Protein: Glycoside hydrolase family 19 protein
Organism: Pseudanabaena cinerea FACHB-1277
Amino acid sequence: MKQIEIWRSQAAASLGFLVPKIRGELNQQDGLVDDLIRALNNLPLRPVNRQPYAGIFPAADLPTWRNRAATTLQASVPKIPDVEGNVFDGAIDDLIRVIRNLPARPIGRSPYAGLFAAADLPTWRNQAAQFLASAIANIPDPKHNDIDNRVDDLIRAMSGLPLRPAIRKPYEGLYNAPNLSGLRNLAAQRMQQLVSAIKDDPNPKDALVDTTIRILNNLPPRTPNQPPYAGLYPEAVANTASGTNHINQAQLMAIAPYARRDRLEKLLPHLNTTLERYNITTPLRKAHFLAQVGHESDGFNTNEEYASGADYEWRRDLGNTQAGDGVRFKGRGLIQVTGRANYEECGRALGVDLIRNPQRLGDYDLACLSAGWFWSTRNLNPHADRDDVVRITRIINGGENGLADRRNYLARAKRVFGI
């Protein structure tokens, strides 16, 4: 899963939590949410005299509208498509055409199409970088010419530098070299670096989501150089290109041989998201995490405890201060988050209102993510690095209940991961 996809998932959860909490009568925040829903779903702009949500949802009271808006955003944000391309791809295409004395790119044609053989965009960019590096270094004219002007302008634009003063020759102020040939060689090297490092532009819809979340949270605006969501959520640990940090169905079945296959299939993608998000990425960390959640979830066979939760009534150490809290906030998730206080803390971290909707914690995605949240907030990775199953068990359980079973899961996981 790419970083932007993880951030979109987190943003969707945040909006699902924040929008129902908008207070008072219809206000500017509702207008902002309405605008976002319309933009994400390609709906017409709201007429000036129409109140927020009218025309999007059937007539209802305001809390119902806000809940429906939250549900709509939770579904829409993860579906935002990636944008393929960058504003500089067109400028690079133009420069290559000038150097090759080719006609201008036809309107509607993608940059690089017709310059290189059919390929994906990263391949085209690599080919463009290699061509420009060679072509700029070997410009035959012994004097500055129009190509030098264009190369200088593009390097400055892609590097975020001010425009070249009109009285200054190309490359002056960029590089120091004894002659024009040396300047062109330096410009060629820089151009290759810049083109090779191009990333696709963000989708403007991601920027709208970012802005909405910041306003609802009373946070300062995103800085100009920040991509959407940066600063709102932490970056996930980079995964390897081959996906070796992910576990697969066969591995999970070997660790949990008594689990129902259909449940493991539903859990697997959310487990992998959790492992990435909470840096549970080494073989030993994965083994300990899966051993503990395997035991706590009855071998991955349930997302909530079998008991009613009545025994937790009025447990103030769990934050159960209201009648019915024990049953309402019984153990849920793969690591059995229990009690009003823990539900509130976990929901705040995951961007979901678990106080109003405690059953949500039993869904496959939050069952996994809540276990990762618990693992991270209790700082269990260092204990896994030390292979200390007893210490991890005591932190999770408060004692050593089920230690033998946890050891059995750990042994199977270690065999699976070659430890």
Notes: The chain has a mean pLDDT of 89. DSSP finds 17 helices and no strands in the chain. Residues 121-137 form the longest helix (17 residues).
